[in-house]
Amino acid sequence: MIKKSFSVIAMVMSFLIVNSAFAEKENVKVSGFGTVATATSDSDRYQFRSDRSQAESAKKGGLAFKPLSLVGVQLDYSVSDNLDFVGQFVYREQDEQNLDSITQMAFLRYDITPSWQVRAGRLAADIFHFSDTRDVSIAYPWVKVPTEVYGIVPARSFDGGDISYTKPYDNFNLLIKGFWGSGESDFSSDDYNPITFNNLRSIGVEFVSFNWSLALKHTQTEADNDDEDLAVVAASVAQLQPFWSGAIDFAKEVSLKDTTIHYTSVYFNRYFDAWELSGELSYIDSNSIALRPSFNGFLNLSYLYGAHTFYGLYSFAKTDTYFLSQEQPGFPINESTAQLAVFVEEVASSLAHHQQTLSLGWRWDLQENLAFKVQFERTDVEARGTGLRARDGLVVDDEDGVVHTLFVALSFSF
Amino acid sequence: MTFYKHFSPLLAVVLALYSFSSVAQSQEKIVVVTNLNNDVQVLDKKGIIDLFMGKYSAFPNGRQATPIDIELNDELKGQFYKSLVGLPLARVNAYWSRLKFSGRVKPPAIEQTMEDVKQRLEDDESALAYVYESYVTDKMKVVYRFD
User: For chain A, what is the radius of gyration of the CA atoms?
Assistant: First the structure.
């Protein structure tokens, strides 16, 4: 229902804009961004994907363009000095391609005063620092945002509204923003079975100077459903109630449905002349074993030399390994439940990422709006913590491994 | 070889003239100007960074400001942003890409030429633009000078 209404809004607004464009050219601005990128990896087992929403991946002996290549078009229509419509449409690799799925943003922005602003419609997800621009590669030095932090962010946009307040001080500006809305996950299976997030509330506080910034964000939401696999496993666990008194309670823990999920992050950056140091720490948890407490983060050091930026980036995702026999000693493991026990552990492990990556890269600004980038990564994945990599088979069967990935990209805006 | 012999002095002169004009132009001071009727008398550097880098959208007196970028004069634009935030245009574009494509902020308005900027400053009381000092007319008010 939400999807349909936003498809209609996006279509109507786009139609109005195209018509208005002929009448008031200066009120309509068309711009965009894109990336043409390829990736290759030295592993068939732990293939690269930029986030969990992707079925396409880069593996050994081939060049994969789909995981990172995309193009986005943005329409900005000024209704008046204070009121604008913004529509953004991004074509990239994803399970479904239709107006709803490519509509990243479609909202009205109203500046009540220079300090107060409200926006309503489909807004870019603002969960962690780069969540709202993770596809805009020209905006950051790397080929992609760090997978360990952003690969698990469940959606690129949500439907709802936000209100923000900005207060300038002598040495910095204070920005406070609150959002309320709902949305669907990008995470999906071959059958396209997204998870719906209801009652999504987000608060962000940023202290911003030109030489430094500090941002704190917290988001809380309730998952409305399980994907099909998760629902089957939870239902199967509940059927153990005659043999184990804790089965129904544990089945609720297995399920994501009605679970409250928290996302919290702190980001900073600081410029020292040609150097920039930046980093982010994030924490995710819920009361379901499907999304167990996870620490993620990155630390980046960049050096700007003329049109060239050289950088080193360390990023990590850390979630404890889950063993059913330790967490639920009462779970009856026997011949007939052995397979179910494996599936429970798979549920508890597939979003429990445990890996770290060291990246070195170079960005060369060929023109004001065109950048060439090369990035080389070494990723150490831990057994049962490999969910960020695309692979065949179960996460619980995975072992420790080391993967190297090379990326080459052209990022542009227009 | 003959070509080089004949044209090398000419090339040297052209290069010298180009260097001279570049130096001459790069030495020309940039000022930030508003409409003559704007109440604002002076801005500090932080205020100009706020307005041109999308951090705040009003003058210190609370009135809405409209910063203007020039499209067809990369020399002036590049010199302005280098003086303002110490970044080349490619990095300024990267910075603005984040603000614009997240839908947070409307970027500066764009005028094509210096003549367009001049006209906009005359017509729009909220306009704020950067020009070479030699370009200031009696219909503009200088609110900031780069050293």
Answer: 22
Tens digits of residue pLDDT in A194-211: 889 999 999 999 999 989
Nearest to A375 by CA among A364, A386, A391: A364
Of B95, B98, B100, the CB nearest to A31: B100
All structural domains of chain B with their residue ranges: 29-145
Domain B29-145 has CATH 3.40.190.10: yes
Identify whether the C-beta of residue A54 lies closer than 8 Å to the C-beta of residue A94. yes
**For residue A399, which phi and psi values (nearest 5 degrees)?**
-115, 175
| Both tokens assigned to B116 | 């367009």
Q: For the segment B32-70, what is each residue's pLDDT rounded down to a tens digit?
A: 999 999 999 999 999 999 999 999 999 999 999 999 999
B103–A367 CB contact, under 8 Å? no
pTM of the model: 0.86
Q: Tell me how far apart the alpha carbons of residues A254 and A252 are, in angstroms, rounded to a whole number.
A: 5
Determine the average pLDDT of the residues in A237-250: 92
Q: How far is A133 from chain B (nearest CA, A)?
A: 6
Instruction: Give the residue from B75, B72, B98, B84 showing the smallest Cα distance to B31.
Output: B84
Residue with tokens 């704007």: B38
CB atoms within 10 A of CB A65: 14
Cα angle, residue A113 at apex, residues A108 and A115 outer, rounded to 5°: 100
- Residue A383: how many CB atoms within 10 A of its CB? 15
